[in-house]
Amino acid sequence: MKKLEEIEAMAIDKSSSALLQHLLHLTTPETISDIAKHLGQSRRKIYYHLDKINEALPDHTTPLVPRSRIGLLLNQEQKDACQHLLDRIDSYSYVLNSQERIQLLTLYIAISTERVTIEKMQQLIEVSRNTVLSDLSEMRRLLRLDQFQLTLMTTKAQGYVLRAEPFAKVQYIYHLLYSVFSDGAAPFLSILKEKLNLVDLLNDFEEIARQEWTHLEKIVGKRINRQELTSLTQILPCLLQAYRNMNLDTDQKELLQADFAQVRERVEYKAAQHLASCLAEEKNIQLDCIELEVLTILLLSYRKDTDLHATSEDFEDLRTTLEHYIWYFQNQSKYIVGKPEELLNQLTMHFKALLFRKRYGIFSKNPLLEQIKCKYPDLFAYCRVTSKILEDAWDVHLTEDDIADLSIQMGGSLKTPLDKGQEILHIYLVSDEGVAIQKMLLKQIQYHLPNEMIHAVFTTEQYRSVEDLIEVDLVITTSDGFEVNAPTLQVSPILESRDIHRIQQFIQEPGGFSSGVELRQQLEKLLTPYVPSPDDRKTLRYRIEKLYGQRMHLSQSKNN
């Protein structure tokens, strides 16, 4: 067995650290050729570093050996051992890779209050002039590809500067800081804080934030995720430094304030004012009105564990959309939601923050994305497909990280998937009488049809938009002249006895629809040989069902 002293003596040298970091971030196997290409080294050099790493690993750890034609992917034991090796490399022996050099240079240019020159950048990252010029060239290329459209320029007064619209620059710096603090290796983060003189500033913000966090949550009536607290104390100080270095004129500040205007109406703005007051009193750090608004945006955007305001009237439209989404998800998938009202509250809380992130370009990653896609592929796929209804309603794009967040929310509220042998009617309610009447109608029908599934309550316009996407056995509507292909029953907004009788007759009458399922199956079987197109067959089947329902109702009326 290797003794501790021997292991310490065999610690990997600084040239192997880049490979270690790359291996720790892999989520799928990667071949030696691909690793060499990514790190800009030869395959021979990669094998040399692997040998050095394996020598430094404890005896009980499985060596890092790539599999033929598959590549290399660390298991958890290997990850823990490699992370331990990496943690033993201090900031003095650590060598920045190309990506880290560019990130450090970008932040230095963004927050530096002095003239930025090639010589100062050489001292910052401790490389040759040619390497700095090469990194700046790569930085320009990356900025051209980026959505925020920043430009790297040089001026006599400031040297190298980043130019962009103020709002876009704030968004870009946030995005960069989030990536650095989320994915950066510990030695790199230590170097970044030391080189940019951020250590004391970060500590001051962290001390005040942790000290006042409980009080802030009381002000906003929400419990913010504790991981987000760490993000706030790391990102906000650097973001404010970058903003102050912009030296905006009055017109530019007014433009930013116009972009941020609506956040001053939120309760998070009061929490931001309280935190700013504490920073001023205890650390002599003064925040101006725009910095207060930036802090408010972060508080609005961060994920919440609880939210007392999730059911407030301010978000009634949001809740209505999510209510429709839950029913739509159940209709399109094999899943059933156990407690829809609880799920609705959770989704409201989650999407309130998400929409603020989308509005202000606040980047967010889900660290469990790959695990969710791997372990729950069906759930992830259903969430990806059904989320289109949310994207259209809010005019946003949901990334894979957003879909993973949605999958977690939905997955925690699902019952066991339906037994496909148990048929349940697909019933939809359509009413243009307003949300209150819609809810009352839903409750009345659920009382009289406890074993049937009411998939959704739509307005006429909403139903028209999804009509081609859903399977329908019955539409119950309060609207006059509502014409659709599916069987339809018109009822009063406040159900009368005859309405209840007609609905129950549709569901239960022997020889009628046999719960709507038997007739549907028989028609499907009979029509298939003659109508090959599924869409045409579906339309024809709806018309036959509708005609049959009308005849049954007429017959029942004559008998009565």
What order do the helices and strands come in, and which of them pair?
Elements (H helix, E strand, L loop, with lengths): L3 H6 L7 H9 L6 H8 L3 H14 L19 H12 L10 H14 L6 H8 L3 H17 L5 E5 L3 E5 L2 H18 L2 H10 L3 H22 L1 E3 L1 H19 L5 H10 L7 H17 L5 H13 L2 E4 L8 H17 L7 H21 L8 H7 L1 H10 L1 H7 L5 H12 L14 E5 L4 H14 L4 E6 L1 H7 L7 E4 L10 E3 L6 H12 L8 H11 L6 H26 L1
Parallel strand pairs: 5-6, 5-7, 7-8
Antiparallel strand pairs: 1-2, 3-4
Helix pairs in contact: 2-5, 3-4, 6-8, 7-8, 9-12, 11-12, 11-14, 12-15, 14-15, 15-17, 16-17, 17-21, 18-19, 19-21, 25-26
Question: Strand order, biggest sheet?
Answer: 6-5-7-8
- End-to-end separation: 93 Å
Strand content: 5-15%
Helix content: 55-70%
Rg of Cα set: 30 Å
Largest sheet: 4 strands, parallel
Count of DSSP E strands?
A: 8
Number of helices: 26
Provide mean pLDDT, rounded: 81
- Low-confidence parts lasting 5 or more residues at pLDDT below 50? 1-11, 417-422, 510-517
Give the structural class.
Answer: alpha/beta
Number of domains: 5
Globally, the shape reads globular
